[in-house]
Amino acid sequence: MTEYTEHLLREAPRKDTANRFRFVWLVAIPLVAVLSQVYLPRFIPFLAYLELPLLITVHFALSHRGPIPALFYGTFIGLVQDSLSHQPIGMYGIVKTLVGYFAASVSMRFDVQNPVVTFILAFFFYFFHQFFYWVLARALLGEIITFDVQQNLIFGLLNAAVALPLFRILDKLKMAS
Amino acid sequence: MDFFLSRYRHLTVLLIVITAQLLLIAYQVRTNRDIPLIRVWAVTAVTPVEQGLELVRRYTWGFVEDYFVLLNVHGENVKLQRENGQLKIENNYLKNELATADRARALSVFEARSPSKTVAARVIGNGTGANSKVVFVDRGSTSGVESGMAVVTPDGIVGKVVDAYPTASLVMLITDPTFAAGVISQKNRIHGTLKGQGHGECLIDYVQNEERVDVGEWFYTSGDDRIFPKGFPVGQVAAVQNGKTFKEIYVTPSGMQGGAEEVLIVLQGVHQEVPAGELAAPGYRILPLPADAASETPQGAPQPGASATDADRLRAIYKQAGVDQKHVFGEGIPGSKPPDFTKIPSIHGTPATAGTAQPSSVPSAGAAPSVAKPVPAVPPPPATPPPSTQ
Predict the structure, then answer these.
(1) How many Cα atoms within 13 Å fall on the side-chain side of residue B128?
(2) So what's the ipTM on this one?
(3) Tens digits of residue pLDDT in A37-48
């Protein structure tokens, strides 16, 4: 084990004071993310693949490190997303619940402030999110949807690239509040 | 139990939340019912913000656009003034007026002309999910919109309403992977099912490989799905190839060219006829008739008003035989004496017995070469007894 990896694994969790979002931010940020996902692709269709609600869920889970708040936060965001889609309510809810839970569990073992770790986690959870949604759509709804691995890998990288500055901005907001 | 719950508290909560959502999905799928409360809350909360954003965008971005358009028009006017004088400037102004007639005007003309009752709507946002192709429009149940209604533009179909809320509706676009609609081809009236593919083109399925569909051919709604009235344009065929059982026909949707911003929701659909198109060309080349062929009437060819087929000739022969023997077909009880069919001429006009009248409609012997063999239904001449009597 190198010194660098030891540093990653032993890094102490961030201070509790820094993990306090105000309630308004907790509600407003995911709503803005969902609204952006609804509105922006009209003008820039490519942005449909930017999963801002997912990145917000991952950020919350990584910064709070509590699996239960994270899974409820994921459920909330997922259900809001479901209610604006034509799928049965609960599809995104389940996927984001799992993402919130696992991201919070992972955050206890890694230094999530590290940009490399953040990038890898964002990429992993995007792929996990898309894959698990595809599994649910096939298993529960019987939909025949193709899962384009190559495309999802590319969009995973793009989402991970967006996650780096986004998480930094959210951290700043958290500090300010 | 307490030990288990405290030891695996996180996992227990996760399982409870997941199970609750699974039950929610199972309820919706099994009963085919939605949870309107959650959706109505979410949509009612989101759509006013979207409408506000759209309003701001239209006025800010529209202002910038107008500014640049005005700059261009001004420069153009000056140039034209130099070159051609006031008359050409006026002409240019009128042309610009004509060119900048927006799609809303086209929609209103279409709305007035279409027999279907429609309501105009504006797209205000997309649905969530990368795979799904759904949009929100700013007309809802208060405008009479209901789920299942067709959404069209003057250029073609756009989608269908999947959910109607008080102030907005969710429209599934025809490019959505779960979308399907009945369509019919313009040339050969071939029925198929339009399916979304999640990208720009749609697939038309369930068309047999033996059917003929050409690239560039138009497809229209067939009305089979009871959602889209018959006769609305769907799109032009971009590519055709044979599949295992059915053809793979890819269509470029005509209603979504350049992105649909203003649409019409069909409140009461009226079926229309699919416009007549030219018939599909056969798969082989046919030479045109010789120049003198049209003027010549071939020997023995049926004259106008004469019987055209062997069946017609037979009918005329039997009818004449009945008249000659004073027999009325369709009368007489079973067992009564039938007409003597041995005294009728053959189909080719050769009299079977002397004195039997030759029907005027029967062509003479040695007529059209296409009728070389006698039809089996014709009774043989008396000299040759029928096989059944042997």
Answers:
(1) 30
(2) 0.79
(3) 888 887 787 888
